[in-house]
Automatic annotation (TrEMBL):
Residues 2-246 form the KaiC domain. This is ATPase. GO terms for molecular function: ATP binding. It comes from Candidatus Iainarchaeum sp. Keywords: ATP-binding, Nucleotide-binding. It comes from the Archaea.
Length: 246
């Protein structure tokens, strides 16, 4: 099986070199755990290190803020967009019925899963996208009247993404202690992998961790890995290393 490497320091070696190609992975974590940074790093490295064009569908944060925040890590997204290596699709404002000034966005007349899929499909053809991010699934659910409709939309989305052959990360919030990884109870089953990010405040230090909860067709690490957010993005460590340093 071909692997899609994230290029995130310390991560790929934990999953036999990367995500299974053409599959979807759910990245779950509480607020501020680093989901958006992880996803952007995956897309950015995709272009810069592996020559894979990518699509970032943002349903929570507005694109201009993501572009601005990610410059802190030295990731100039605008430059990638200008060279058609990246397309950011804005669904953040359509979600609340407001027009977006972005070139690629969902209409303010209402968010529609079919329109989003069509836009993803068009973009995939236009730039030859190999990687996709959907940030976040709960924000997608915002537009539906009832949870059954959200579940149907998630199923449709995951099926079509698989058909398209893009390798996808979807994000979801998770509350600490809850024994589920998505909000609607099916996300973790329709995806091929589940990554969980935690932010633990224990003692006088806060600790960030990443755990690979599942990765189909992969002999993956089962450890809780300490992670760091540095000036160059996310770095994943091994537990032994932490002990050595302590
Ligand atoms: N330059 C930086 N250096 C170190 N840590 C940073 C830096 N920039 C952001 N962070 C940390 O990353 C967090 C934001 O990460 P990110 O936006 O990826 O989280 P998230 O999981 O997507 O959150 P949300 O659920 O709110 O969308 C900040 O709260 C901060 O703790
Ligand atoms: Mg986020």
């Amino acid at each position: 099986m071909d692997r899609v490497a994230t290029g995130i320091s310390g991560f790929d070696e934990l999953v036999e070199g990367g995500f299974p190609e053409g599959r979807s992975v759910l990245l779950s974590g509480g607020c501020g755990t680093g989901k958006t940074i992880f996803c952007t790093q995956y897309i950015y490295n995709g272009v810069k290190k592996f020559g894979d064009p990518g699509i970032y569908v943002t349903l929570d944060e507005r694109p201009e803020l993501i572009r601005q925040d990610m410059l802190r890590f030295g990731w100039d997204l605008k430059k990638l967009e200008d060279s058609d290596k990246l397309q950011i699709i804005d669904g953040s404002l359509a979600k609340i019925g407001m027009p977006s000034e972005e070139e690629f966005s969902m209409p303010a007349t209402g968010f529609d899963i079919d329109k989003l899929l069509l836009e993803i499909l068009r973009t995939t053809k236009r730039i030859g996208a190999k990687r996709l991010v959907i940030d976040s699934i709960p924000a997608l659910g915002f537009n539906f009247q009832n949870e059954n409709d959200v579940r149907n939309a998630i199923l449709k989305l995951s099926y079509l993404l698989m058909r398209m052959g893009v390798t996808t990360i979807m994000t979801s919030e998770i509350s600490d202690g809850a024994n589920k990884f998505g909000k609607y109870g099916i996300e973790e089953y329709v995806v091929d992998g589940v990554l969980v990010m935690h932010y633990l405040g224990i003692g006088t230090r806060s600790n960030r961790t990443l755990h690979i909860r599942k990765m189909r067709a992969t002999k993956h690490s089962e450890d809780l890995h300490p992670i760091q957010i540095t000036d160059t993005g996310i770095a994943v460590h091994r537990v032994e290393k932490e002990y050595e340093d302590a």
